[in-house]
Amino acid sequence: MLQGSIGFGMGMIAAPVVALVQPTLLPATLVLLAAVVTTLTLVTDRQHVDLRGTGWALTGRVPGSVAGAAVVALAPDRVLALLVAAVVLAGTVITGLGWRPEPTKGALLTAGAASGLFGTATSIGGPPMALVWQGHHGARLRGTMSAFFLVGSAVSVATLAVAGAVDAEIMRAVLLLLPMPVVGFVLSRGLNRVLDPVRQRRVAIAVSVVGAVLLIGQQVL
């Protein structure tokens, strides 16, 4: 619902919960499910996409995704769970700072690489792109973020598959959970008309922090 409204956020909310319940499903399950939402959002808001910015960001996404897949292949589940929590907390700080970097080529390349790394390793690739594209609003933000994440997700899934992180368990989970992001997207269409995206993002940040703290507590205890 959040991703369909502001263009990102599914990983920040869902990843800590999945890591608490079934960490072996990360990151591929959420990357694949998020691709469903980004596809639906892109079809709806396709005329508002910033193609130039998306192209530069995707150029950085590819090497970042390769690095993220290497992290998944080499790091134990406990390390990945703590990395998820750390990325969530860092993402909430970044999105709440109010810093507004100019979306230059260099900034887009850097944000794309960071998004590829963290999005592939933890399924949370939204905060770097939200930071560099925070000048976009509404349909332009959703469409641009969705175009970036749709192509970026395909790159991430391909690199994860090569690393052996997409198996039968992952695909069964994706099929089981598939109705949920679709329902969330449909609900987001109505929420976009009545709910202030700024307030919605604040709620998402609060929920994400709680999830990350619980995840850290679980791993420590």
TrEMBL record:
It is found in: Cell membrane. GO terms for cellular component: plasma membrane. The keyword Electron transport does not apply. It is a multi-pass membrane protein. It holds the Pfam family TauE. Belongs to the 4-toluene sulfonate uptake permease (TSUP) (TC 2.A.102) family. This is Probable membrane transporter protein. It comes from Janibacter melonis.
